[in-house]
Amino acid sequence: MANVLIVYYSRSGNTRKMAESIAAGMKKEKVEADIRDVKDVNAADLLAADAIVVGSPTYYGSMAADIKRLFDESIRLHGKLDGKIGAAFASSAHIGGGNETTILDILHAMLIHGLIVQGDWQGDHYGPVAIGAPDKRATQECLRAGARIARLLKKLAA
Ligand SMILES: Cc1cc2nc3c(=O)[nH]c(=O)nc-3n(C[C@H](O)[C@H](O)[C@H](O)COP(=O)(O)O)c2cc1C
To answer: Does residue 132 have its Cβ closer than 6 Å to ligand 1?
Structure first.
């Protein structure tokens, strides 16, 4: 069975709620995800995952330091994450507050690791975004992203 890791950092719960909705979207495709606070994630967890989904609140237009620390520590895995699936999501306080730059920062690190990233031509293009607590639209985007990641995982495994 596929091993999916959803990692998040969340001070006030918005990004955590998005992580839960992404996992719910995966569940609709019969894929179970392990949802973890970044403080409980180590290099071995990344290595064991077939898909790594990372969410962060937007902090000054970029990922929170705790998420950056995980990527910086992942240097010890350089070359070993190649070919896994990667995806990202973000929460900010404002429209135009930097969600997409935050997601792209995370995706840059994933691409350097050799992860496979799928965009979305119809939904949130780079990954799901929420303004504050995820509303109905953001929750739908998280469910959609989860289902798409799960389907890609099954397609690549076949
Ligand atoms: C240090 C810090 C920097 C932030 N920078 C931004 C920012 O650049 N743009 C923005 O829209 N929101 C910014 N915010 C707000 C958070 O991104 C927003 O409240 C987010 O929904 C929090 O997610 P969480 O509930 O998962 O912690 C910042 C918050 C903090 C604490």
So the answer is: yes
